[in-house]
Specification:
Elements (H helix, E strand, L loop, with lengths): L10 H4 L8 E11 L8 E12 L9 E3 L19 E11 L5 E10 L2 H25 L6 H8 L1 E10 L8 H21 L1
Parallel strand pairs: 3-5
Antiparallel strand pairs: 1-2, 4-5, 4-6
Helix pairs in contact: 2-3
């Protein structure tokens, strides 16, 4: 993947791009210091900043659970919409054979941390079941990995928090986008 870096103040040039680092707004305020004893009333410049946009790369080392909800799942028993948000869960799955544990960060759309945790457990179980089927098909169902997967796991959520996110981009779509960008760059280099 090739990285294209440029600086612009034009919003139309930013469409479809990602920030390489957090974007902050900076300014200087003149503050009157009224509590400084004999220097009271002196005007002092103070540098300030605020976060405008957090870079997407802060979530590059995570697993996004892409679960679609049915219309019924999106409403409660009275037909009212169920509010969901994105949750980040830092987890450790300790496999019950006692020899293996794995840590992952997940992003899941859920009503609360408990529902997000259930989605993580389903994801790990699904992955384990697929691997067990593959090992059985390869006549390796008597191996240590198969036994570990069969024993199951205990999931610990180290931290779970709601994150300021409104949507995710599916991994395949991101890969396609970057592959297209790379191809366009190669074509432009050939033409130059």
């Amino acid at each position: 993947m090739k990285e294209n870096r440029f600086t612009t103040d034009l919003p139309e040039m930013m469409v479809g791009m990602y920030a390489a680092e957090d974007i902050r707004r900076h300014w200087t305020e003149e503050v009157v210091d009224e509590d400084a004893g004999e220097d009271a009333g002196e005007v002092t410049p103070v540098d300030r900043s605020e976060l405008v946009l957090q870079t997407v790369t802060s979530f590059k080392e995570c697993i996004v659970i892409e679960r679609e909800f049915t219309e019924e799942e999106m409403r409660d028993a009275d037909g009212n919409p169920i509010e969901r948000a994105f949750y980040q869960l830092d987890t450790v799955a300790a496999w019950r054979d006692g020899d293996f544990a794995e840590s992952h960060i997940f992003i899941a759309l859920a009503r609360d941390v408990d529902e997000a945790r259930a989605q993580v457990e389903d994801w790990i179980n699904s992955r384990a079941n697929k691997r067990m089927q593959q090992l059985a098909a390869d006549n390796q169902a008597d191996g240590l990995e198969y036994k570990r997967l069969f024993a199951g796991f205990d999931l610990s959520v180290i931290a779970g928090t709601k994150i300021p996110c409104t949507a995710t981009v599916p991994a395949e779509q991101s890969k396609d986008f970057y592959a297209e960008q790379e191809e366009n760059t190669k074509n432009q280099e050939k033409e130059a």
